[in-house]
Amino acid sequence: MSKPSKHPLVPSRPLQKRNEVGERVIRFKCSLQNTILDVLRNRGWQEVVGEGDWDFYWCDVGWMKEFFDHFYLEEHMKICHFRNHYELTRKNLMVKNLKRYRKQVEKEHGKTEAQKCDFFPMTFELPTEYHMFVEEFKKNPGQIWIMKPVAKSQGKGIFLFRRLKDIVDWKKSPQSDYQFAPDGPKEQPENYIVQRYLDDPYLIGGRKFDLRVYTLVTSYVPLKAWLYREGFARLSNTRFSLDTIDDTYIHLTNVAVQKTAPDYDPEKGSKWSVRQLRIFLNARHGKERVDQCFQLIDEIFIRSLLSVQKIMVNDKHCFELYGYDVLLDSNLKPWLLEVNASPSLTASSQEDYELKCRLLDDVLNVVDLENRLTGKEKAVGGFDLMWNDGPVYADSMFTESNSVTLPRLNSFLGCINERKQQLRQLYRPLQTIK
């Protein structure tokens, strides 16, 4: 029986028994007015507006924080966030958990294995680690650092600096959250992280870029994680230079920042598909070196998820679509910049809209409210299962390493996404069985 609830989005009466697969209508709620709403409507599901029973809810993280702990979910219901998703997606907590995980790996497996966790820049949290930061700062005069608010997105509040005086001046500026009233602080200042700026990024046409890649976690106990084949590189609008560190069009690749550039073309945008990028890199550096680079990117996904697995509140009703931001340096070493629990689903172009429609439709295919899957699938649409309580290896796919043949992880980032064909092949035998 459902527990009574006073909140209008929570079922206040028992749901009716659902019909057999293929006959029932799945009811959904959606708090966003963008691509995901289009995908849900096009799926043929029934939209619930206002008060009403629902089977699936695409909510925002604010709703999770305020209401999730106060209501009862029926067995079949699904919701698009885990309770404490912020352990990975809030910048300071992500670094804290990665540092802890690295220490654990070093203790259990040694320094060589722990070095595989060195994929995020040196980071300090302010104001709590300010003195530690100053000590490190003095060891590296002239080093560029970057300040980021821990809970903001789209490039808001980010700036670069070379001098400690720049932080002091910033704290006194109207833009700072560290302002103090004459009779004391206005409110608790917002936490920031300060990171060593990656000043040797890989450049395309002289411009900096980073990657947006999508992973889907359907369970943390055991950890079950999927990687989407498609993604995109976000290029800055201006040629890279360290001469001007206060030009956001040079140093920040966020679309929200770049689209305000005077010469930004909304149709052309500043994006490459990951497939385009992989082809470009193969031509310049050879397939073997690029494969190694992408294997290191896979390592980032897996180790970052493992770093929060033991502290994440697992719930069979929850799943999470993460947007990873990864930067390549001039040596093709990937660096994790941040992880987003609410990656932008607003399209910046027709091509971007179509990509996000494919992505979100396949999220729903994996979550499988229609009960069409067996649970043994290694691929669903454009998603490939890369971790299922341990690494998942590709069928008959191997990689050469020092003349030793090794199994290859079931990851195909930047490869052809033949999702329509894959889904037809996947669902046809299932329909025959039923």
Descriptive overview:
- The structure is a single chain.
- Helix 2 links the parallel strand 3 and strand 4.
- The protein has 13 helices and 20 strands.
- The N terminus is likely disordered.
- The strands form 5 sheets. Strands 11, 12, 13, 14, 15, 16, 17 and 18 form an 8-stranded antiparallel β-sheet that branches. The protein has a 4-stranded parallel β-sheet with strand order 2-1-3-4, covered by helices on one side. Strands 5-10-6-7 form a 4-stranded antiparallel β-sheet, with helices on both faces.
- It is an alpha+beta fold and 434 residues long.
Number of helices: 13
The overall strand count is: 20
- Pick out the low-confidence regions: 1-22, 179-187
Taking the sheet with the most strands, its summary is: 8 strands, antiparallel
* First-last Cα distance: 30 Å
Shape label:
globular
Summarize the structure.
This protein is α+β, with helices and mostly antiparallel strands. The protein is built from 13 helices and 20 strands.
State the main characteristics:
434 residues, four-stranded parallel β-sheet, disordered N terminus, alpha+beta, single chain, eight-stranded antiparallel β-sheet
Which SSEs are present, and which pair or pack?
Blueprint: E1 27-30, H1 35-42, E2 46-47, E3 56-58, H2 61-67, E4 78-79, H3 86-89, H4 91-109, H5 111-114, E5 123-126, H6 130-139, E6 145-149, E7 159-161, H7 164-171, E8 180-181, E9 184-185, E10 192-196, E11 203-204, E12 207-220, E13 223-235, H8 248-251, H9 255-258, E14 271-273, H10 274-285, H11 287-309, E15 320-328, E16 334-340, H12 350-367, E17 379-380, E18 383-388, E19 393-401, E20 404-409, H13 419-433
Parallel strand pairs: 1-2, 1-3, 3-4
Antiparallel strand pairs: 5-10, 6-7, 6-10, 8-9, 11-12, 12-13, 12-15, 13-14, 13-18, 15-16, 17-18, 19-20
Helix pairs in contact: 1-12, 4-11, 10-11
